[in-house]
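Duplicate of #3305? Posting structure anyway:
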């Protein structure tokens, strides 16, 4: 049998291409490829070389449309014993190919060529082509004979044109030789024999039968040469004669051959026509051909020679002619019939060729599995031959079957997959392609796949191809480890090691072995997460740049394409990055990974390799790192692994597909689950882009980065160190706050940072920050009560946000957004652990009366005398001033705010109360030029309580205004109601502001140790205590009373030894009472003055009176003008020395609604009585 047979094979002229002299293999291939371009020579192109010596036997030669068909055979082939039966099997021309630069002696070339031609007795034309001859060879070439043809040096196109001319000359020579042969065969005739009838021991009957058949066989041979000469009409005429003679002589074998020739002539004659009737005719004739080949079978010759190969060839020719999808069933039947006949073939080579052709035809139909099956039959026939060349052929054939069995090497599909990857979008890259799904489904065909890979491994070892052997062992071990015993796994590991020993160091293979590598996660450093976009065109260049981690994508962004399901990750040039991958070794041997590192195809990333050992049936998560080296996108498809002596690339996508198939039950096993690894969510590789180097601020708290333990209200200054660890200076920086309790950060020394800009690489700046601990809530108190040292949640602490960037582009010429280098955001958490400090037990208002001494002048408060022009005031005067507050009264019923504090901690606290007083007599809300006065400190030991008194009389308003009581008396009318409502709101707002101002003036501070100090938040306590008494505390009485002594100038001599503010007994002492009207209306009153002793008895009236008086003390009628003082003089004469108290009281006549509202009475007939505080008088006796 012969390979690549078809119906048109009978019309092809075989020409042997023989290398002559020394010629490189690749050069010979190049010359041979030039011949292949001229396999068809039109008859119209050879007319200039054709000479008709006598009338041509090819009377119907189609000179305009016909052609000669060449089949070039490189290296030639041995003569076939069936040459007489099929003339197209003969080598009818021999062409020698000589590379003249390596064969300078043309004589030896011609001699060698002549010797070669002697081996081809059937050759009608011989030519020797010499390429690239030198000048001397060109001169001598014409003298060496007509068979030598030299091709002058030229380009390939010129060489091919020259070659085409030479082949046209050869075609003309062959045509003339065919005419000679036909004339000779018709006149003399020859004995045509085949192996079926060429035995020497022929009987006389067989000889007689052969002589009768000679004429029919001669006609068949003439028809063959007519076909070769390109004259199908002449050939068909001779074939018709041969068919008739062969039928008469029962020469079935030659009958079938002539019938085959007639089919070929029919197709050549109607070349290019697609006629169903023609197809039916071919099918019908070939059915007859196959039938007559079967009839020619002789059982007694079956062991020696058989026409079975021609019968099978006829099946293949018809199948190739009908080979298309519409006639697939008929073609499969023909090929199946041919495959059944292969068992009866005597020659193993014929069986090999038959399987090759069947496999090719099945492949043409698209039946890849059937083609792969017969290809394996071919490989097994090769493997039966114990030689290297056969093993190489087997390896090549098996490699072609791997695609059908889905065990192909990744190298064979790399081009297709690369095309798919380039054409696919980001959204599709995370999905499985249809081919992958089919591959996973067909992986259940595992037993046959393992057999194919074992055959490839065996043939590769025999062929001495260690890389192919390593690839086959790797695919076998990686894909089918669950079905391989531990001993088999160890055997494959040894095969991998043995193959690697024969390979050069550092060689790469496209097929990975072990371990399995999958992407675990992208651990993100804070420096990667807090990358922001900069807008140099704005003053607040950081505005709108709040980062969402390292990923710029947000699902709420508009205008994004639908396929942007991947997130974007930004890396910085020169800053190391880390990626977590998980390795799995599901086999029963220890796996040594010499090196593994990230595989980056973009060329702008330097990975760092690591080595490790994986015990049997184990998995391990490792960190792979590297440094981006230049700006641009980065693609990380997988990892590069150096294991078993070979470098391979492990793609994350392949493992993802494998795990997806395992989850759906399409593949045998999940290698990670086999090793005890938990199920991991699929992690996709984000779109990574590298930006230029950026500054990198690193922060830490001076003194330690632990939690800052503060007690409630404690104020402390900490220092934060900021160092530039990058390679670019920090040119821009902005500090802001985020998180909860932002008001706990009292101050940030931003100017300190600003003064250090630009902060060069390696430079450091210390940033002072003042903190104040917040007040714990109820939940926080419960948490803190369990363990005093336990920190609270970090979510309660504020954080510093530092937006910073390197040099920004000039705002006048802003570049595109993509060209602006991004900035960064540093988050400095202020880990404040607030512990419970002093706690409030309760707060309440206290009232007490402290009598003032009657002096020559009314007491003045300290805050009226704090001018720089006046002398300093001593602490005693200050304390007096703090108690005697009101400028128009000496003393009265004071009100104190009592705070009861508890110390549940292990520390000792000192409490100090300070009050801010105004320097003016205006309302406290003015808040200008305030002076702060402190009270003595109060010590609270651990587990003890203490009470702190805070005087509230400092905050009396100087005027009693009716606006505070608008709600109590509303005028009639709609307009009045509207005005009343407005006034009421204004009054309430003023009252609220006054209360808040009062609270803000009182400070309760604590100190513990040398450095720990703070301030208590008493706002809530004061508001709760003043909830029902705010009016009494803030509003003054309508009338205030004061007493003073009236002395003449003579009594104020320096010789007076009486204590200051005292009076003498038995001496008339002039006094006066001062009554101030604190309202804006005239008050008419009836004033009474009473003097009492230490027992509280009236000393002026009664039979036991001890004080005499001069003037009026009772029923004094006074009309007090608004906001002014009224005076009344009188004199007292004290009979008994001692301590006395003067008390003034007034009955207000015709009280207004304002006075009734202040007195909290609703009855218009109820009298309004106003009493002043007692004034102390010290009476001393005379000597």
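Output from current build:
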């Amino acid at each position: 049998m012969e390979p690549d047979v078809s119906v048109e094979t009978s019309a092809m002229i075989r020409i042997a291409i023989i290398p002559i002299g020394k010629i490189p293999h690749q050069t010979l291939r190049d010359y041979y490829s030039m011949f292949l371009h001229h396999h068809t020579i039109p008859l119209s192109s050879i007319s200039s070389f054709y000479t008709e010596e006598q009338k041509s036997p090819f009377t119907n030669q189609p000179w305009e449309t016909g052609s000669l068909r060449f089949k070039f055979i490189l290296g030639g082939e041995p003569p076939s014993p069936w040459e007489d039966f099929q003339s197209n099997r003969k080598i009818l021309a021999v062409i020698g190919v000589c590379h003249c630069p390596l064969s300078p002696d043309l004589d030896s070339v011609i001699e060698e060529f002549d010797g070669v031609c002697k081996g081809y007795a059937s050759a009608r034309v011989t030519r020797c082509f010499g390429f690239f001859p030198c000048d001397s060879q060109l001169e001598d070439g014409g003298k060496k004979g007509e068979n030598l043809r030299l091709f002058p040096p030229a380009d390939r196109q010129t060489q091919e044109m020259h070659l085409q001319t030479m082949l046209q000359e050869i075609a003309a020579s062959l045509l003339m030789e065919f005419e000679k042969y036909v004339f000779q065969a018709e006149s003399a005739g020859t004995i045509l024999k085949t192996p079926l009838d060429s035995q020497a021991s022929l009987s006389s009957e067989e000889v007689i039968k052969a002589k009768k058949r000679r004429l029919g066989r001669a006609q068949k041979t003439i028809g063959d040469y007519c076909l070769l000469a390109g004259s199908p009409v002449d050939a068909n005429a001779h074939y018709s004669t041969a068919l008739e003679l062969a039928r008469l002589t029962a020469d079935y074998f030659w009958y079938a051959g002539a019938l085959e020739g007639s089919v070929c002539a029919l197709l050549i004659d109607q070349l290019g026509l697609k006629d169903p009737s023609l197809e039916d005719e071919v099918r019908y004739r070939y059915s007859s051909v196959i039938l007559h080949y079967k009839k020619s079978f002789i059982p007694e010759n079956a062991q020696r020679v058989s026409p079975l190969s021609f019968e099978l060839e006829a099946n293949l020719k018809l199948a190739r002619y009908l080979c298309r999808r519409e006639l697939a069933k008929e073609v499969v039947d023909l090929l199946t019939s041919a495959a059944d006949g292969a068992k009866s073939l005597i020659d193993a080579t014929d069986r090999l060729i038959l399987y090759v052709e069947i496999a090719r035809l099945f492949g043409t139909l698209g039946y890849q599995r059937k083609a792969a099956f017969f290809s394996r039959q071919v490989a097994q026939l090769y493997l039966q031959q114990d030689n290297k060349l056969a093993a190489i052929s087997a390896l090549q054939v098996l490699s072609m079957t791997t695609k059908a069995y889905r065990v192909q090497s990744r190298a064979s599909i790399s081009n297709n997959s690369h095309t798919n990857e380039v054409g696919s979008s980001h959204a599709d890259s995370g999905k499985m392609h249809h081919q992958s799904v089919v591959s996973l489904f067909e992986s259940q065909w595992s037993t046959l796949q393992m057999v194919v890979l074992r055959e490839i491994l065996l043939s590769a070892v025999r062929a001495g191809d260690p890389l192919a052997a390593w690839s086959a062992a790797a695919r076998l071990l990686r894909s089918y480890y669950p079905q391989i015993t531990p001993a088999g796994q160890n055997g494959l590991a040894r095969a991998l090691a043995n193959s690697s020993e024969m390979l050069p160091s550092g060689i790469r293979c496209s097929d990975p072995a072990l371990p399995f590598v999958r992407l675990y996660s992208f651990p993100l450093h804070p420096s990667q997460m807090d990358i922001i976009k900069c807008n140099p065109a704005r003053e607040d260049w950081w505005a709108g740049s709040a980062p969402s981690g390292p990923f710029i994508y947000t699902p709420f962004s508009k205008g994004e394409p639908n396929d942007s399901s991947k997130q974007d990750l930004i890396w910085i040039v020169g800053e190391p990055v880390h990626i977590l991958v998980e390795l799995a070794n599901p086999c029963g041997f220890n796996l040594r990974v010499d090196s593994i590192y990230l595989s980056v195809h973009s060329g702008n990333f330097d990975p760092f390799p690591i080595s490790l050992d994986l015990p049997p049936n184990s998995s391990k998560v490792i960190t792979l790192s590297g440094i981006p080296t230049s700006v641009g996108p980065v693609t990380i498809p997988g990892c590069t692994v150096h294991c078993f002596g070979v470098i391979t690339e492990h793609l994350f996508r392949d493992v993802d597909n494998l795990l997806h198939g395992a989850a759906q039950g399409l593949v045998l096993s999940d290698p990670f689950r086999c090793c005890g690894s938990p199920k991991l969510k699929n992690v996709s590789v984000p779109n990574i882009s590298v930006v230029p180097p950026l500054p990198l601020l690193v922060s830490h708290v001076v003194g330690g980065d632990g939690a800052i333990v503060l007690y409630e209200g404690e104020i402390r200054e900490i220092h934060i160190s900021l160092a530039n660890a990058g390679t670019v200076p920090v040119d821009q920086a902005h500090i802001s706050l985020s998180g909860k309790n932002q008001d706990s950060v009292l101050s940030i020394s931003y100017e300190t940072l600003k003064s250090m800009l630009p902060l060069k690489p390696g430079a450091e700046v210390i940033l002072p920050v003042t903190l104040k601990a917040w007040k714990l809530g109820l939940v926080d108190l419960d948490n803190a009560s369990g363990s005093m040292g336990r920190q609270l949640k970090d979510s309660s602490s504020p954080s510093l946000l530092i937006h910073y960037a390197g040099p920004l582009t000039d705002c006048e010429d802003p570049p595109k957004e993509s060209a602006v280098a991004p900035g960064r955001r540093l988050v400095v958490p202020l880990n404040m652990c607030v512990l419970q400090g002093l706690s409030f037990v309760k707060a309440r208002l206290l009232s007490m009366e402290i009598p003032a001494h009657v002096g020559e002048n009314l007491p003045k408060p300290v805050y009226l005398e704090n001018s720089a022009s006046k002398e300093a005031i001593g602490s005693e005067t200050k304390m007096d001033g703090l108690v005697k507050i009101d400028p128009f009264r000496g003393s009265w019923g004071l009100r104190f705010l009592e705070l009861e504090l508890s110390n549940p901690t292990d520390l000792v606290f000192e409490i100090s109360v300070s009050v801010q007083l105004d320097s003016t007599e205006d309302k406290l809300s003015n808040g200008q030029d305030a002076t702060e006065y402190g009270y003595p400190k109060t010590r609270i030991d651990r587990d003890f309580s203490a009470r702190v008194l805070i005087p509230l009389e400092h905050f009396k308003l100087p005027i009693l205004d009716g606006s505070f009581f608008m709600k109590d008396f509303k005028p009639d009318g709609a307009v009045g109601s509207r005005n009343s409502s407005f006034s009421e709101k204004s009054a309430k707002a003023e009252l609220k502001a006054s209360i808040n101002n009062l609270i803000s003036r009182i400070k309760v501070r604590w100190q513990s140790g040398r450095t720990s100090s703070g301030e208590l938040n008493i706002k809530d306590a004061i508001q709760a205590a003043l909830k029902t008494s705010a009016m009494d505390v803030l509003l003054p009485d309508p009338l205030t009373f004061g007493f003073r002594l009236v002395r003449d100038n003579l009594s104020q001599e320096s010789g007076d030894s009486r204590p200051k503010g005292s009076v003498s007994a038995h001496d008339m002492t002039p006094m006066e009472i001062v009554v101030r009207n604190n309202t804006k209306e005239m008050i008419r009153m009836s004033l009474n003055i009473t003097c009492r002793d230490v027992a509280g008895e009236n000393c002026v009236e009664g039979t036991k009176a001890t004080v005499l008086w001069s003037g009026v003390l009772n029923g004094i009628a006074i009309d007090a003008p608004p906001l002014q003082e009224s005076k009344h003089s009188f004199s007292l004469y004290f009979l008994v020395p001692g301590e006395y108290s003067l008390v003034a009281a007034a009955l207000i006549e015709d009280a207004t609604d304002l006075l009734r509202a202040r007195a909290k009475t609703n009855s218009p007939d109820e009298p309004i009585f106003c009493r002043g505080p007692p004034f102390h008088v010290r009476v001393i006796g005379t000597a």
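Confirmed duplicate; merging threads. Residues 7-188 form a domain with the Rossmann fold fold (CATH 3.40.50). The mean pLDDT is 79.
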